[in-house]
Design goal:
single chain; 2 strands; mainly alpha; 200 residues
């Protein structure tokens, strides 16, 4: 942390794992961490309180360095300021190694850029087909499944639409679609339940 602060003063930018940031951003991040570590525990949500306690414990000090009241960093006694800076350095280390997850948007600056996989154009493998919901001994025969689908399509618009789409799959010309429509008429499935345009 000292090197980063030195870089902010001397070259005007700081190298963080995600990207380089302007010195002003570094000082804002550092001030935010210091303020979070110094804030009263009672006013924080549990998740924030747990993070603050974890950072102070990892730094080797009592939470908030034992302070009973909140004071701005500049008004804290010199030993408390030093311990607070050590806790801030500990927080940065824990953020960078993934031991804690920051709650603010800028906390991602302390994490490396996630690996991004660039596709070579090969389609992803198809997921394995799932077995039907019925156990093997209770599965319907093809004839029973077809009869059940037709009976459902006669009374259920969604079932009719599904059956029609299945029957018309890969049928792209009008004659093939006409054959599917004729089959629906023969099976007494109402025609107003399905689409009659060819698949594209």
């Amino acid at each position: 942390m000292d090197q980063r602060t030195h870089d902010a003063f001397t070259i005007g930018q700081v190298e963080l794992p995600r990207r380089n940031v302007h010195a002003g951003i570094w000082f804002r991040l550092l001030r935010t961490i210091i303020d979070e570590l110094s804030c009263p525990i009672s006013g924080s949500r549990k998740v924030v309180t747990d993070l603050i306690r974890q950072v102070w414990a990892q730094a080797g000090y009592r939470t908030r360095d034992g302070q009973a009241f909140w004071y701005p960093y500049e008004q804290q006694p010199e030993p408390v300021q030093r311990h607070t800076m050590e806790a801030a350095a500990t927080a940065v280390m824990l953020l960078e190694n993934g031991s804690i997850t920051g709650l603010g948007n800028d906390s991602d600056l302390f994490r490396p850029v996630p690996d991004s996989v660039i596709s070579d154009g090969t389609p992803p493998p198809q997921p394995p087909t799932r077995a039907p919901f019925l156990p093997i001994g209770e599965r319907l025969s093809l004839r029973e499944a077809f009869t059940a689908a037709v009976e459902d399509a006669r009374v259920n618009p969604a079932g009719a639409r599904t059956l029609f789409n299945f029957a018309a799959y890969k049928h792209n010309d009008a004659d093939q679609i006409h054959d599917v429509v004729n089959a629906f008429i023969e099976l007494a499935i109402p025609l107003d339940f399905h689409r009659t345009t060819p698949n594209r």
